[in-house]
Amino acid sequence: MIELTSDALSYAQEHGAEYVEVRGETTEFLDLLVEDRGVVHSIGGIYNGVGIRTFYGSGRGYSSTSFITKTSIERAVEESVRMARASNFNATKVKPIEGRVENVKAPMKQDPRELDSQDKVKEVLALARAASKVTSAKLTRLHYLELYEDRTLATNYGLRLRSIKPSVYVSIEAYGDGWQLIYEDGYVGGWEVFKQIRKDVDEFYEQLVFSSTDAEAESVVLSPRAASNFLIDDVLPQYVFPSESSYDRFPLPNLEVLDDPTRESGYGYMPFDDEGVKAEPIQLVASGKVERKLTTRELDDYGGRARAQDFIHEPGPANSNTRVVSIEKTSMPKDFYYVPFTYSLGSFNSGEVIWLYSPLTVVYKGGAPVGRKALRLGIDLSKVKVTGIEGEPKRFGCLRKFGGGLIPIAEESYALLVEGGIVD
Predict the structure, then answer these.
(1) DSSP three-state, residue 116
(2) Which residue from 86, 95, 155, 402 lies 20 to 30 Å from 415 (Cα-Cα)?
(3) According to CATH, where is 3.30.2290.10 located in the chain?
(4) From CA 361, how far away is CA 357, in angstroms rounded?
(5) Hey, is 258 helix, strand or coil?
(6) pLDDT band at residue 397 under the 50/70/90 scheme
């Protein structure tokens, strides 16, 4: 792969490209879908390819190929250069990136590829059956995905980077009488992270073992995971994606948001991004004011925030471990709805209400859980008051699609108290 990327760089320069970026990738994967009765689907394998991005003046071109031969890579280079030349309208040039050679390997105690497949299936099935027992669900479905990525980035500015990253991703769906529960978690690391996920799942289910009730509460407390969904998935992108956004003031004045790709234990860990820019923590929002954006639309100068799903996709704006790190604290109300997770039912647009749905909300009366109910919650950002609840952050990493890529979001946050929401 190193030889092919070097040849691609030289070939692109011969065709007149001012800046050339070649990304080679090899990924091994295992994809398991199990139900509490047994394995439903299993597939594994290896895929690889090369992505080529070129700049000519202000023009940019991108092409990729999954055929790792000199002929196919040269064809992709030619296509990328033609696009860059065709889209050039002025003399703007790409800012050079510092050249260096660096190898980075994400930490892991046991390579998931080295574990016996039969033992791995038994462990995954055991988790699905445990979830089914705890929730008394009629059907429980667990999706287990592991990836082992080996990526190489090379540019004509002398940059040579290689990154090896193992990842484990688990999602659980449980279905009962009129309700549905979904748990999602993703980590960087070896097989030992699966055991951590099992532990987190047990803690997650502890909150859900209550009998149904129609008791009403007065306030809404979003769990760290629900707060993550609400802030990072529904609200924050309006203000920090992409750098051309015109917003400079967040509607929640006490909010502090930090994005930190350097946390090795987090799913969004990356010592450098897919453009070779060294990653660094950045304060996105301070006291409700948008301090920085995540990235530009071209080469990144915002602290390593460009990421692509794979070699087929061009790097674009991405967050990593985005956390609510400090907000105004308040005391826990006696009567409240505790929302463990949410589904988004709407979007924020010029004061429009964001509608959230939590199918398994825990009702607290006098500070004690008394039952569960489905909750539909409307939040108008122009009116709602959001303050922090004392408590330890929990790890609930999630994945969502953004710009063609799988993006890890909201590794940590504090629980949020919502006053002024519309409860339906």
Answers:
(1) coil
(2) 402
(3) 2-206
(4) 9
(5) strand
(6) very low
